[in-house]
Structure formats: structure tokens, C-alpha cells
Specification:
mainly alpha
Length: 230
């Protein structure tokens, strides 16, 4: 006991206060350079890239569930199979990012720029993508059920086989997008621009909510009544 009291007397004031708040003596005297530090963002990306390239033998899988990632650099980032559920990516610059099979459920990507992104098989259930730019992105077989895509830019995107059931695409631009075999049941396409869209069938439009303001592919003669359809 006498030795412990002597050590405490020799400690800096902040360490004595830490001990008084319940910290163990070893914690109170722990040098600050031994304290755990949060990984730098670049380190997280590098560790995940290594994890992907080595099949999980090195590095670690990025689990960014619920993280605030606004302002982070994601252009060209390798985030294949990363977990970003509930993360805040509002306004993020992520052009060319690789997010194959990534988990983006319930994340916020409002106003984000992911042009030419690679989202094959990615999960976007309930994700907020209002005003996001996904032009030219690979979204084949992506799971976008219930996603918010109001005024999103999907020009030239590859949406073949994508699941857009119940998605909100009001005012979205899909000019030149490939929507062959895309699932549009219950999707809200009111005011959407589908000019130049490829692979769009009358059956797909019939299963979605449309109005007279929708712009169908040029040269097509789909029946688009002025009143709401579906």
C-alpha cells in the first residue's frame, strides 16, 4: 500500500485524477503513446483491399456500420463486400469505387457522386439515394428494393436484373440506362426520364406507377395515361 501511495504521489495530476475516477494504477500510469489510436481512413481502405485480394488471409473486412463517412475520400476505393449498413455517405465523392456485393442497406447517399461505380449485387434496401449521381454505374442484379432514388441520376447505368421493387424513382433520370429484366413492380416512376432506356418492356412499365409526365424510350408506343397508373 505504501508503494502504491508513493507512486500516486509521483504521478502527474491528470493521472491521479484518472485513478480517483476508478482507473487502475496500471491504466493511470500508461504512457499516452501506448494508448490505442483509431486507424486512419487510408489504413482502413488498405486493410480491406488486402483482405479482398488475399481471400481474408490478411488485412480485415471493413465494417463501417452506422459510421459518419461524410468528407471521406472514396474515389476508386476498393470496398468489395464491405459493410456500410446505416452509414452516412451524404455528398461523398466516390466515382469509380468498387462495391461489389457491398451492404449499403439503410445508408444515406443523398447527393453522393458515385459515377462509374461498380455495384454488382450490392444491397441498397431502404437506402436514401435522393439526388445521387450513379451515371454509368454497374448496378446489375443490385438489390434496390424500397430505395429512395428521387431525382437520382442513373444515365447510362447498367441495371440489368436489378431489383427495384417499391423503389421511389420520381423525377429520376434513366436516360440511356439498360433496364432489361429489371424488376419494377411497385416502383414509382412518375416524372422519370426513360428516354433512350434499353430493354424496357411494356410489362415492366405496367407493373410500375407511372403518369403522363414520364418520358418513355424514343420510338416506343407504350400506353402511359395522364392519370396515375397502378
Amino acid at each position: 500500500m505504501a508503494l502504491s501511495r508513493l507512486l500516486l504521489w509521483l504521478l502527474p495530476r491528470e493521472a491521479r485524477r484518472a485513478y480517483a475516477r476508478g482507473a487502475g494504477l496500471s491504466q493511470a500510469v500508461r504512457p499516452p503513446w501506448l494508448s490505442p489510436r483509431p486507424r486512419a481512413w487510408e489504413g482502413v481502405l488498405e486493410a480491406h483491399r488486402l483482405w479482398v485480394e488475399t481471400g481474408g488471409k490478411r488485412g480485415f473486412r471493413a465494417d463501417l456500420t452506422g459510421q459518419d463517412l461524410r468528407g471521406k475520400e472514396l474515389r476508386g476505393a476498393m470496398l468489395r463486400t464491405a459493410i456500410l449498413a446505416g452509414a452516412n455517405l451524404e455528398g461523398v465523392q466516390g466515382g469509380g469505387a468498387v462495391l461489389f456485393s457491398a451492404d449499403l442497406r439503410n445508408a444515406c447517399l443523398r447527393g453522393a457522386d458515385f459515377r462509374e461505380g461498380l455495384f454488382l449485387g450490392a444491397e441498397f434496401g431502404g437506402t436514401d439515394l435522393e439526388g445521387a449521381d450513379l451515371g454509368g454505374s454497374l448496378l446489375r442484379a443490385a438489390k434496390l428494393q424500397g430505395a429512395i432514388l428521387r431525382k437520382a441520376r442513373l444515365d447510362g447505368a447498367d441495371l440489368q436484373g436489378a431489383h427495384l421493387e417499391g423503389a421511389d424513382l420520381r423525377g429520376a433520370s434513366l436516360s440511356g440506362a439498360n433496364v432489361a429484366r429489371a424488376h419494377l413492380e411497385g416502383a414509382d416512376l412518375r416524372g422519370a426520364d426513360l428516354s433512350g432506356a434499353r430493354g424496357l418492356s411494356a410489362e415492366q412499365l405496367a407493373s410500375a406507377r407511372t403518369d403522363g409526365a414520364i418520358r418513355p424510350p424514343e420510338g416506343e408506343s407504350f400506353f402511359l395515361p395522364g392519370a396515375e397508373n397502378g
